[in-house]
Amino acid sequence: xxxxxxxxxxxxxxxxxxxxxxxxxxxxxxxxxxxxxxxxxxxxxxxxxxxxxxxxxxxxxxxxxxxxxxxxxxxxxxxxxxxxxxxxxxxxxxxxxxxxxxxxxxxxxxxxxxxxxxxxxxxxxxxxxxxxxxxxxxxxxxxxxxxxxxxxxxxxxxxxxxxxxxxxxxxxxxxxxxxxxxxxxxxxxxxxxxxxxxxxxxxxxxxxxxxxxxxxxxxxxxxxxxxxxxxxxxxxxxxxxxxxxxxxxxxxxxxxxxxxxxxxxxxxxxxxxxxxxxxxxxxxxxxxxxxxxxxxxxxxxxxxxxxxxxxxxxxxxxxxxxxxxxxxxxxxxxxxxxxxxxxxxxxxxxxxxxxxxxxxxxxxxxxxxxxxxxxxxxxxxxxxxxxxxxxxxxxxxxxxxxxxxxxxxxxxxxxxxxxxxxxxxxxxxxxxxxxxxxxxxxxxxxxxxxxxxxxxxxxxxxxxxxxxxxxxxxxxxxxxxxxxxxxxxxxxxxxxxxxxxxxxxxxxxx
Length: 510
Hints:
Growth Hormone, Chain: A; 20 helices; 5 strands; globular
């Protein structure tokens, strides 16, 4: 998982003034003063702030030529394979001061922050896989167990309403800490999810997922809480985009596993068995995930005094979650059934369609996360939410190339809005209330999604088309855009304590 010491060497021109200056891109260097030059050393730099556990850059004169050697040790849990090569490529080139590469966060992250973000991304893989299992397999499990669209919609509603299972964990995270709860959920969610493989009938399958999915969702919301509390002020939306990409990968792995359903009537059960693979992540979180510094400060300085909940902020965010999920839930839940029944797709083709149309959403997450951190959240969300939703609806009206193009473009535009909306869920509440606020917002989203699933399932069984139903539900994203534009504050570039002054003084005197 990374940690090996690396050495990069490159010749530099004698007039390359940038190479002789401290870097300020993926790290901040400081020059070590040199009383005298030894071994031809012209300049020596070390890390002042940055992601490396060890770092030094030395420039030597060798027979009249300047040679730069950069030595570093980097530990990125689980994702060194992705970011390690990007960092090496950046370090091989001179840096223009203040110009970070496109993939890097706006702020320079510390080694602790990089480690925490990597662990949270791994936890997002786990959470997304367990949260996606039922949605991806319900069409095939329903066929095997003799359940139609209405029954599947009811099952999806019951699984979503199981969110009540997650409430004690959200409350506990605000009392005993984020780390202990996250570790417990990381063990419990995949184990209980895997029990779906043994379900003798559809109600038992629904019962197992009504426990495991809420545990995965509770894990997901606490991951977001830790990211908000650990990341610097101008990179919180960036961290959301990274975690969302990891979630997409975790969900994608569930999709990739879907062709197992083609093995036979019970092939879908094998997808549930694969949930046990994520126990490797649980082991690593147990070993390496620290408690957030903000929560530790909250316990030490405030002695468990709870700041009051911002009821207006909570109300508008719950409304956004409710109306946003009116379209999102049925469009994702019934997509596989739509592709299988109306477009004649096999399980393998469903997986191909899902991967091809959702993978470009990574681009939207990157663009949306950087734009939210640099230019603000409100404008991005207001523009992208209704447009992305309209494109998704279009993918249910047409077949052939138009269906694919609408789905791809909808995935990109909707993903651009996600970091802006998601980061608000943790930014607008004080430390002592952050976990339960995130839970209540999530619960509101699931209520909205559950109602729309019931309505959609009933209408589909009465031969109303997918496109007509989802077109009507598009009013939900439009309401979201209006609420965000007229009621949300701008939080970019602000510390959490500035947004929530209650954290500085939980008992202000009049």
